[in-house]
Amino acid sequence: MTKANRTALIAATAAVVAASLCTLPQATASAHDAPHHGRPADTASLSLGSLGDRTGVRIGTAVDMAALAADAPYKAAAATEFSSVTPENVMKWESVEPTRGSYTWAPADQLVAFARANHQLVRGHTLVWHSQLPGWLTAGSFTPDELRDILHRHITDEVGHFRGQIWQWDVVNEAFNDDGTLRNSIWLQELGPGYIADAFRWAHEADPKAKLFINDYNIEGVNAKSTALYDLVSRLRAEHVPIDGVGVQGHLDVQYPAPHDIADNLGRFDELGVQTAITEADVRITMPVDNTEREAQAEAYSVLLQGCLLTEHCTDFTVWGFTDKYSWVPGVFTGEGSANLFDENYRPKSAYTAIRQDLILAAPGK
Ligand code: 9MR
Question: Which residues form the signal peptide (predicted)?
């Protein structure tokens, strides 16, 4: 898409969103897809996932497995509204191997089965991270060689367990500091910067068909961190390391302006030959929420999604949970919340309407 077309899309979308907020009937979380029968689709009845399909961008959500088991409306919305799912926690190392050598796959297997039953793809999250590591690993004293073997085995076993069932793996998560230097994690300290290329090679060996991503936050626009990541991906591609994509998490806060150069940032990864995705979108607000903040939130979601829609090889847009009933935000950012598309009673917010309109406007898309 040319820059002129991008500008036109953004302007037109803003107008449609403004109009729709006044006139559209409220959509529901359990919207089902209508059969087409050769007639133009009635977009009001289409789920986010189906609207995304018309644009070539999958629309996903992170899934909280406790909520999925206990809350029927949550399960219904997760099943019908989205075309891909990401386990919010159950594929992380502390969840799958709480005791050394003894694996707990059941919750993650349940999500994979849920996705299959609902014709959804799965983003695997995440293999190499500094956080949510099991105690036996962080408290243990291992030599660098031992730690390298432990990491190799973790990747081989986990990717192997899910072989053929994962669409995209977040192989390496949050490896950078905001200034563009590599994070001083246990992996960097003990194994040196080569751990990143090794992790991608090991994951590729275990499942050659999965798309392998590096994922991070605060890399939505062009900045020191996203540029360092760009340089790393460029080097890895030149060295034929099997890296397929860059995940841009998209955790925003209405009190800071949403970057308006997301498409410029994602577009430069197109040029490296890798895919991109928005992998963890949410937009938090300082409580209590007023109408201005609610509309600013809708705009921020829209800016994130449009950045993806405008980028040729941006393949998916995932929200980090869809209801305020279950959100990581209040527990981490004191006094903030309301970050999701639906409120705690599953009522859609302006942000939900806004991203529907973006998808409708963008079809037929890429
Ligand atoms: O949403 C996740 C929350 O339930 C966990 O307690 C937390 C632990 O660090 O991780 C959250 O998910 C994070 C994701 O895995 C990586 N990017 C940031 C997400 C929000 O913290």
Answer: 1-29
Nearest C-alpha neighbor of 304 from the set 317, 285, 289, 294 = 317
Question: pLDDT per residue over 175-219, tens digit each?
Answer: 999 999 999 999 999 999 999 999 999 999 999 999 999 999 999
Are 272 and 233 spatial neighbours (Cβ–Cβ below 8 Å)?
Answer: yes
Quick check: bond before 126 cis, omega within 30?
yes
Portion of the chain with pLDDT greater than 90, in percent = 87
Indicate which residue of 88, 97, 158, 174 is catalytic: 174
Q: What pLDDT is attached to residue 41?
A: 62
Predicted confidence at residue 34, as pLDDT, reads: 40
Is 293 part of the annotated catalytic residue set?
no
Q: Is the pLDDT of residue 26 over 90?
A: no
**Site of tokens 């998916």:** 316
CA angle 215, 52, 55 (to 5 degrees): 100
Quick one: CA torsion of 190, 192, 194, 200, rounded to 10 degrees? 40
**Coil, helix or strand at residue 131:** coil
Count of domains for the chain = 1
Q: What b/e readout covers 337-355, taking b as 16+ CB neighbours within 10 angstroms?
A: bbbbbbeeebebbbbbbbb
The protein residue with its alpha carbon nearest to ligand 1, atom 20, reads 328
Number of H helices, E strands in the chain: 15, 10
Q: Which DSSP helix (H) or strand (E) runs through 10?
A: helix 3-23
Q: Ligand 1 pocket check: which of 64, 65, 85, 88 to mutate, most ligand atoms within 8 Å of Cβ?
A: 88
Q: Tell me: the pLDDT tens digits for 276-300?
A: 999 999 999 999 999 999 999 999 9
Share the mean pLDDT of the chain.
91
pTM: 0.91
Tokens 């036109």 -> residue: 8
> Mean pLDDT across the stretch 218-222?
98
Give residue ranges with CB within 6 A of ligand 1.
88-89, 131-132, 173, 249, 280, 328
Residue type, 90: V
Report the CATH number that the domain containing residue 212 is assigned in CATH: 3.20.20.80
How far, in Å, is the centroid of ligand 1 from the Cα of 155? 20
Q: Is 174 a catalytic residue?
A: yes
